[in-house]
Amino acid sequence: MEPRLPGAALLLCLLDVLQAFASEEMGDGFRRAACPAFLMFDNAAYLADMTFELPCHCKPQEVSSVTWYFLEKMGSHRTTVLTDFAGTVLVDSSHVGAGSAVLQRFSIRMFSLIVFRAQVSDSGHYLCGTEEGHYFYGYDVDVQPSSHIRVTFVDRGQHVRLDHAGKLFRLFTAFWAWSRCDRCGVRGEQRRIGLCYLQGAGLHPRYRTAAPDVTSCGSRAVPAHFQRPLRLRSPEVAIRSCLTPCPKERAPEEGPQAISNVIASLGEGPWQPRVPTQFHRQSVGSSLILACPGARPEHAVAWDRGSVRLYRSRYLRGLNGTTRIFIDHGNHLHLRRVRVGDRGTYYCWRQGRRVAGFRLSIAHPARRRRAFDDPETIYAAKAIGIGYGLIAIVFIGIHLCRCLWRALRGPASR
Length: 414
Known about the structure:
Order of helices and strands: HHEEEEEEEEEEEEEEHEHEEEEHEEEEH
Helix content: 10-25%
Structural class: alpha+beta
Strand order of the largest sheet: 4-3-7-8-1-13
Strand content: 25-35%
Oligomer: single chain
Number of helices: 6
Largest sheet: 6 strands, mixed
Shape: extended
Radius of gyration: 30 Å
């Protein structure tokens, strides 16, 4: 063993050198990327409820931190400053409310801006720059609504929408590639998201698009007189079934250790996948949103409740307006008005592998005796007092009217 030690030490030294060289190369990425002389805006389209990331592709070498700016329209005086100087960092997107402002739904990591659970109101211009107001890179973000999305189930023989050709432009749906099968070893589903795009001349030259004369329908590069027809075309999502085998696990080692593992597993409860598990405690009537760790908009994500598969063909958002448990188009699992029967373990699949578990326990809200100086007690007392006062006024008014009627009717009857 002793002659191998110098060789191992030399190998470790070489690995350290290579790692340092790789880190230096990564650090030089911004140094090699030259910022454009004239600020352009890259078009990027997403679906509502998705979490998207905008990298700051270039910045001067002397700039150690960046500030992001959000403008709904160019030339607007209302500018939202997105900076992490005050420690605004969100780690778990499940803590984010769908209706909250963008200031409560963002994070800056390695100069990139991450917006959690994007909303239609987040559409606009995003600029990467400095605190002093110097801009380096820009994006034209189009967040398309998912409220009226068109869902196509390929297994039922349904087809996606055809293109619409006008005199000056053509409307079509640009589909992402089919996602991977979201489960392995059992029947899974594949998803294909399609967003509204436009092809036509006359687009604003300041906006950079993936193809000439093609941009998303909500882009600011589209002329104003094209805006009204664009509202008639909504995004689409296609869903189909799939079946893929699970990757082979490494065979157990032979010997006494393997035999002891088998003996130790005897007498245990039913097998559960060895995945990191989070524990959530919710009160009856509250709401919970679960996000699959590490999932991106293009990833295939699936949810299970124990051994029950929560397929999108039944639990997708919008299929049934009365469903308490549903999956939105950003791959989040929603539980509304939690009940006692919702307790259990919910598993998350990402890219065909089960990666996380969420153990949910339900608790009844604790009862407490209210004091006379509680705001709720004061409000209830005021409401009851006003109610009794109105009833007393109506009662007295009715009796006064009856007495007055009798008094006026008496002399007339005589």
